[in-house]
């Protein structure tokens, strides 16, 4: 355990041993119980320095993270757990082991099963909150393979604490006994920050489950006291509204991982009877800006962050961003700490001298009445015979191809109409609502097109 000092910060913001840090199906978990579980798990962890924590139960994941921290271990947070990703992790960290709470886990690493802590055991350290060195590397977060070869980005405790402090301030949850319900996995950077660290470092609590279907989300909201915060994605929120089911009110909705339309934001606020705050960020910088999407298209930078433009590239620096970092997005600074986001630089499309972005095209496609879900993408062979052709995959059970193409012609330049336009029963989104490029390519090969 790191002893208190000027270069340490606490693991928890909670100050009372009976404060609630988590909610499980059998009731609340106090700080005293949590710390006892942390030290019991920490005592039995293997010697390896690197941990792949794949616990599906959010409380167990959080205990595993805290136990790793007090033992000086580093959590590995890749974007997927495919066999190829695991092989890459073994090369990167040969001493890595997998912490799991599933007997069916088939990840090819030495496995350590999360113990069955049925009874509360007092922490050997009492209720003293562990202090963590600000320079300690907490995790390596890996960039998504969809934007290039996975690359590790170290996250130190000090930078993460500053990031979460700025988020808590912006969301207005400081000093509030809120409960976080997350539809995103804690292993994803967004879920890691906004469903785990936000609770630990701001005095809130987490819901241990990960509701996915609308009925599960409604059940989770009903299972915890107010104030409650739903941390979700545009995909999950769109599915929730489409279900047209009774959903208990929330006190705040947070969304990230993909751009959210203003219309969807307005509908979510009406359904859940609370504000919706959208977060913009990336693996390299963490959370960078927020906006209330129902009211404005402008983003506001997190506390202490600044943007600078050099040679047409936008750099983020200050605040929790420890070194100037280039952003891979098309950003238009407006005034002060505000900016507009026009999509990813890699999403730019140029056809016959006309330019657009996949983000803009996707927004127009999903705004068409009757479209449940849809996405444009550029196939691997898009430059065949020197002709750029976009593909779109869409879930629109009540529309035919001619009707949908006519609706698109009214919204986008005909040069960007998809060829082919593929209809599917569902899109192959992952747990955070993103569409891996490889999955889209496989869907295109399987379903074909025009």
UniProtKB/TrEMBL annotation:
Domain of life per record: Bacteria
Listed SUPFAM superfamilies: Acetyl-CoA synthetase-like
A molecular function GO annotation: ligase activity
Pfam families reported for this sequence: AMP-binding
Swiss-Prot/TrEMBL keywords: Ligase
Matches recorded under InterPro entries: AMP-bd_C_sf, AMP-dep_synth/lig_dom, ANL_N_sf, ATP-dep_AMP-bd_enzyme
Domain AMP-dependent synthetase/ligase: 118-291
UniProt protein name: Acyl-coenzyme A synthetase/AMP-(Fatty) acid ligase
Organism listed in the record: Aromatoleum tolulyticum
